[in-house]
Amino acid sequence: MPANGLKDFDLSGKCALVTGAAGLLGKEHVAALAEAGAHVVMTDLHEESLRAAYESLPEFARALASVAVMDVTKAESIAQTAARFERIDILVNNAAIDPKVTNDNRSLELSRLEHYPEDHWRLHLDVGVTGAFLCIREFGTRMAARNSGVILNIASDLSVIAPDQRLYRVEGREEHEQPVKPIAYSAVKTALLGITRYCAAYWAKAGIRVNALSPGGVFNDHNEIFTTRLSALIPMGRMAHLSEYRSAVQFLCSDASSYMTGQNIVIDGGRSIL
């Protein structure tokens, strides 16, 4: 296939579906795909947050986006969405549960491995792993029947490195009371890489490319202590800006990456190379 320069990034006439589209990066993925010309179906579990995410998009993205409430843990919900939109050319598996870092890390208090709740573990895997599998099974099968499609799994830098739990420490607490990033998050993001490689090989002759994107930490009004600690671990000395993954999404979802499949692109300011 001859190279067409920037024309290879053009997604005009394509329809993309993004799961977890109401989330922090989900909205950015939607904007990235719309910027390249794709019609984008925004899906998430809660209609209110989905509508709010849609309204927060730039005008050009709203013109190319539509919303659909979809539960990635329910095969019937996914099938209903697939039937509604008929042809999905690009699937972005972005849905996940990511514990937020508060000023005192209180949201991570129940995350220690020694007493990590089984229901938390199951919920993380249901959304991040089973959800991705169910979406791939539904939309990927339809892509294979057309001999064309792209699947992008959104992983994390924690798919290739372990969490540095020092980031979450709270001064004055006993070791057994220190908050940590939960094991389920690493399990989910690492599993997505295995799914990526498996599906890339499985559907290579069916015209489907499957890749993963592993973002590093994105600044989102994190507390100063956390931001300083994390920035010190990153060679570039800062967290990512929200828009800094857009071009990677456009590359991986377009013909610009036509000879790439089964790969994981890590964009983390260099943190994982140390």
Automatic annotation (TrEMBL):
Please provide, alphabetically and separated by semicolons, the GO molecular function terms listed in this UniProt record: oxidoreductase activity, acting on the CH-OH group of donors, NAD or NADP as acceptor
UniProtKB keywords:
Oxidoreductase
Q: Name one Pfam family in it.
A: adh_short
InterPro entries in the cross-refs: NAD(P)-bd_dom_sf, SDR_fam
| UniProt key word Oxidoreductase | yes
The similarity annotation says: Belongs to the short-chain dehydrogenases/reductases (SDR) family.
Q: What is this protein called?
A: NAD(P)-dependent dehydrogenase, short-chain alcohol dehydrogenase family
